Amino acid sequence: MFLQEIGSIPILNHKISDWNLLETVIFCLGIGGTSLRLWCFKCLKEYFTFNITVKKNHKLITTGPYSLIAHPAYTGGGLMIINVIFLWYQLCSYVPEYFPASQFGSFIWLVGWWNIITQSIFLSLIFKRVFHEEKLLKDHFGKEWDVYFNQRKRFIPYVI
């Protein structure tokens, strides 16, 4: 086992048939989130940027995932983050191999709080970005944005 842990003997992942329901659902959410973000980038075409900006001759995109929700790319990102959180907790099973038993509880506590703090900061920054983006779009498109935004939810259709 030691040789496997240091990388001398390759270990293949579990067979997909060995996954439990939680692992399968989280995997599907990650794939779905990634696919949703890529679909958004394809729909936005030349209007996609990582910076919040309005380009010359900018048009309001209302097709594809944007026909259901106002910010589908952020929804996709949120689905992808669930995989990151799950990965942190999957790594905790390796802790007893590398840390003395006396430090194990402290490490789990630290990882849990680190995860809560970083995800909280991440979410607050995302919401700040969303509100800034909405203000910029409202200023640029005016009434067209109001009509579009009032017919959709922000992140999850018919919910939020």
From TrEMBL:
Chief localisation class: endoplasmic reticulum
Q: Has keyword Methyltransferase?
A: yes
- Report the transmembrane regions from the record: 24-44, 65-87, 107-127
Q: Which UniProt keywords apply?
A: Endoplasmic reticulum, Membrane, Methyltransferase, S-adenosyl-L-methionine, Transferase, Transmembrane, Transmembrane helix
**GO biological process entries:** methylation
- Do you know which InterPro entries this protein is assigned to? ICMT_MeTrfase, Metal_cation-efflux_comp
Q: Which reaction does it catalyse?
A: [protein]-C-terminal S-[(2E,6E)-farnesyl]-L-cysteine + S-adenosyl-L-methionine = [protein]-C-terminal S-[(2E,6E)-farnesyl]-L-cysteine methyl ester + S-adenosyl-L-homocysteine
What are its GO cellular component terms? endoplasmic reticulum membrane
The GO terms describing molecular function are:
protein C-terminal S-isoprenylcysteine carboxyl O-methyltransferase activity
Topologically, how does it sit relative to the membrane? Multi-pass membrane protein
Q: What is its EC number?
A: 2.1.1.100
Superkingdom of source: Eukaryota
The region annotated as signal peptide is none
Top-level enzyme category: transferase
| PANTHER family in the cross-refs | BLL3993 PROTEIN
Q: What is this protein called?
A: Protein-S-isoprenylcysteine O-methyltransferase
Q: Which organism is it from?
A: Rhizophagus irregularis
